[in-house]
Structures are given as structure tokens and as C-alpha cells.
Specification:
Four Helix Bundle (Hemerythrin (Met), subunit A), Signal recognition particle 54 kDa protein, Rossmann fold, 8 strands, 434 Repressor (Amino-terminal Domain), flat, binds magnesium ion, 20 helices, alpha/beta, 441 residues, binds guanosine-5'-diphosphate
Length: 441
Amino acid sequence: LGGSISRALQQMSNATIIDEKVLNECLNEITRALLQSDVQFKLVRDMTTNIKKIVNLDDLAAGHNKRRIIQQAVFNELCKILDPGKPAYAPKKGKPSIVMFVGLQGSGKTTTCTKYAYYHQKKGWKPALVCADTFRAGAFDQLKQNATKAKIPFYGSYMESDPVKIAVEGVERFKKESCDLIIVDTSGRHKQEAALFEEMRQVAEATKPDLVIFVMDSSIGQAAFDQAQAFKQSVAVGAVIITKMDGHAKGGGALSAVAATKSPVIFIGTGEHMDEFEIFDVKPFVSRLLGMGDWSGFMDKIHEVVPMDQQPELLQKLSEGNFTLRIMYEQFQHIMKMGPISQVFSMLPGFGAELMPQGQEKESQAKIKRYMTMMDSMTNDELDSSNPKLMTDSRIMRIARGAGRQVREVMDMLEEYKRLAKIWSKMKGLKIPKKGEMSAL
Ligand code: GDP
Ligand code: MG
């Protein structure tokens, strides 16, 4: 996809006269590429119509950077589609919230329920899982296994066949046990059928969820819009989670799901494991969709953010693909110096919402300071290695002692490092543009 869009924009910038015909050809090319990426036809059509309205042919002709203008317009329009205008219901720690998961069989509900619970548990919540899937044989066993692995309390039954009854019993029980995140996993069918939607309606009516999350497999292609809409018509879907983003899926279905449910994507699933789960971030997602990598905004900003004299070295290191703890430390240093912190953060891939959720700038800053204190207790070998095996238990213990911190906190910091290293490994082989070439992206 990235290739054909770049090609379209390239042709455009080569044309000496930009007239309506050239712009149309360019947009047709982009349309084709987005359709191949499973973005719904109607969304693409509306988007190109908007772009034609926004992009001023006179501006293009006057020698402004044409590719940049069109690319920016496409980028902005796609971001707009992914923003339904209001955030999803946000459960509050310490207050009981009921979250119901819906979606077709195989979409990844049960897996995602556990990931969602585990994610919150790590942040100090008290989650619990309720298996209201009585349709699929083995559903309860699967949930039980997942929950046990993550040490999360669960409720379900092998005998009871009424999902509504189980859902209500489970919710009641965990309310009594003062769990603050009661997650109800439901059944799916292979096809969208009346019985399934009726069951969802009944479970929702009986448990009164604060949030209904629609789980969608990213590989379902153009079917995404209709599927999401069908669920939205039965229950009050308030958020979307897209699964299997680690596979070949192109992700365009996410746009359809948001458009159909008028609800934001809150997380994506990136693997079968419990921790392969990421907060959804619109801009990097759209960059990826357009094949611009997560790097478009980043490369534009890096000259502003990183002091000039340090840039060549940093860029060189990043292009070698070795994201060491020392690089993380240096980035933390810049970030602490630069401020306003939130703005800088969102520019560095991986340093955005995940590390520093909106509205929690103070806490995040304290966390980063804490991480840096622990890293001050590391040896040069440790800071310069990108081999995670180096961090043995005894080293971790030494670092914790040296910094006057808990072992758990050092492990948290190393988890953060692993997460960032995974993202930044994509920088490997990156061609480093010189200053001035930057805006000609
Ligand atoms: P359910 O029927 O909706 O409850 O779906 P399950 O949770 O049972 O998941 C169906 C299959 O998809 C299982 O084999 C999961 O391991 C797999 N799965 C779920 N989420 C992901 C993901 O993000 N990535 C990958 N690769 N597989 C996933
Ligand atoms: Mg299931």
C-alpha cells in the first residue's frame, strides 16, 4: 500500500502542471491502495471527495510541496475517520465497572478479555472474568485456563446452559468481592444470526454493562462495516478492539468498525500471548496504513526535539537498530529537559499514550525520573547491551538495591525498555534524511 501511494504522489510531483486531471489520477491511485487495505469503499469515496474540497489547486500549482500537501490531507482525513468525537467510557479504579465483550466466534473475545483483565491487573486493578458463553463446548475451560495463568478470579459453569443466568450470578458475586473490573465474555456464532443478537441483548439487559466492547478480527476485510453495524444495532457498543494485527491483516477494517459503531478503537491485539496487547494510537496506526511507518511525524520533529549537535549520533544509532538502555536513558533526558512534555512524547514512537497517558503527565514524569534513578545504578555494559539475557536476577537485584527501589520496579522499567526496543527496531536500515530534505517526505 505504502508503495502505491508513494508512487501516486511521486507522479503528482513530477507533473509540471497540476490540474484537476492530475489530482484525480493521484486520488484514484490512493483509492485503489486503500481499498486493497480493506478500507470500506464508501469511506474512501467520502474521503477523496473531502480532499478535493480541501486541497486548493492554486496552492499546489504555486510550487508548494505537492506531495506533502496531499499526503497530509489524506493522513488527516483518515485520522478523522478514526476519531468518533467522544472517548470510550473509562472505568475507574476502585469503583465496580461491568464490561461486556461481544463479537463473532473466533474473533478473539476470550483471549482479549484476559488480555484486558491482565493489562488492568498490572496497573493495580482488581479484575474478574465471567464466562457467559454456553454455546461453544470448552468455552469455560478456555477462560478458566487463561484466568488461572494470569491469576485472575473467574466464574462459569459446566452445567448451566442459560448465559443470562451465569452472567448475572458472576457479576453479583464479583461485586460482593469488590472487584472493580467485572468482565463478561459472551458467545459468538460463526455467522451473524438473530439468535446471537437476541442473546447479547438479553445478557446486556440483565447485567447492565457500563461498557460494551466489540471485538473484531482484523483479517475480515470488507465485511467489517456490516459486522460492526449488526452488533451496534443489538447492543450499545461503546468501544472497539481489533485483534490479530500481527498477521497479514492490513487494518483498514478498523476504520469501518469505528464508522459503523461510532465508537473509538481502544486497544489492538498483536499476538496470542497475554501481553501482546497495545493501546490504540490513531496517528501511528494511520502512518502504518499509509506505509509511512510510524516515522513520518517523528522524522519531521526530530530536528526540533533533539539538540542539533546530538542528532547525527542518535540517528546513526537508531538506523543500526540497536535500541539500548542508554538510548532510552538519553531520550528520557531530552524529554525531561524539553517540555511541554506531552507534545514531545507523542512525537517519539512508543513514547506516547502508552508511557504517558493523557492527563497523567505528573505521574508519568515521576515514573520516568524513577526509571532514570534505577538506570543510574546500571553498569556501562548493561546500558550498552541490547541483549535482554544479560539482565540476570542477580543484576536486577543489585540495581534495585543500588537505587533503593523494589525488584518489581526494575522489572517494570525493563518491560518498558523491551516494549520500546520492539518498536524502535523498525528503525533499522532507515535512510537518514538530511535537514532540509525533511519536508520533502
Ligand atoms: P472467541 O471465539 O471470540 O472467544 O476467540 P478466541 O479468544 O477463542 O480466539 C480465537 C483464536 O484467535 C485463538 O486461537 C486465539 O489464540 C487467536 N487470537 C486472538 N487474538 C489474537 C491476536 O491478537 N493475534 C493472534 N495471532 N491470534 C489471536
Ligand atoms: Mg470465546
